[in-house]
Specification:
The protein has 205 residues and is mostly helical. Helices cover 52% and strands 0% of the residues.
Length: 205
């Protein structure tokens, strides 16, 4: 599943009734060896990525290289794991924006993280590698999968989602890269271009 994000998503109600069992990691789809991004067809590459500045392109390339060098060689699986992490970051960014808006308006709102504050990106991003891996795998990702109504499209796509980042070192490194992308400061078109750039990798697999 590849998430597309918008600056202000609708609040998602957490479903606390439905219990979940641990999902088995699906078999990796066999692909040809991943080729470096510079080997992309120039015309196709430019059509998908012309709106991205060089700094964002460089950071996305870094993400690909981190996953590839850590043994996640299936591009689809790598994109899924990237999208889960970016979604976690966006949830925290949007929560911060709502907090700031309610301070100005005086209105009250129910936090998405009211029962699990330590699931916010800003709460766990500075943990040690081993602590972060255990925390995200055993608490944050189950929280992410359990969002939304049982009948929602989100639930249908997330029911078989698996957190497949194998090491705390990789998680720490990609978290730092995503943090440095300042996604919340990008407009909607740029956020879409980020995903076009990621999806372009599937064309080379």
């Amino acid at each position: 599943m590849i998430f597309q994000f918008h600056p202000t998503p609708k609040p998602i109600r957490r479903n606390s009734k439905k219990s979940r069992t641990t999902k088995k990691t699906p078999k990796t789809i066999q692909t040809r060896n991943r080729q470096p991004l510079q080997h992309l067809n120039a015309e196709s590459f430019q059509r998908r990525t012309h709106m991205l500045d060089s700094d964002l392109k460089s950071k996305i390339d870094q993400l690909w290289n981190k996953f590839w060098s850590s043994g996640i060689s299936n591009p689809l699986q790598a994109i899924e794991q990237m999208s889960y992490l970016i979604f976690m970051k966006r949830l925290d960014d949007d929560e911060t924006a709502r907090e700031q808006n309610t301070k100005l308006s005086g209105e009250e709102y129910e936090s998405l993280f009211k029962d699990c504050l330590d699931c916010r990106w800003s709460k766990w991003k500075n943990m040690t590698s081993d602590e972060m891996l255990i925390h995200v795998r055993e608490k944050v990702f189950p929280f992410l999968r359990d969002l939304g109504d049982e009948t929602s499209l989100y639930q249908r796509y997330m029911k078989d989602a698996v957190f497949a980042i194998p090491t705390g070192t990789l998680l720490t490194e990609v978290t730092s890269i995503i943090d440095s992308m300042h996604i919340k400061e990008q407009n909607r078109d740029t956020q879409g271009d980020i995903y076009e750039y990621l999806l372009a990798e599937l064309k080379t697999s």
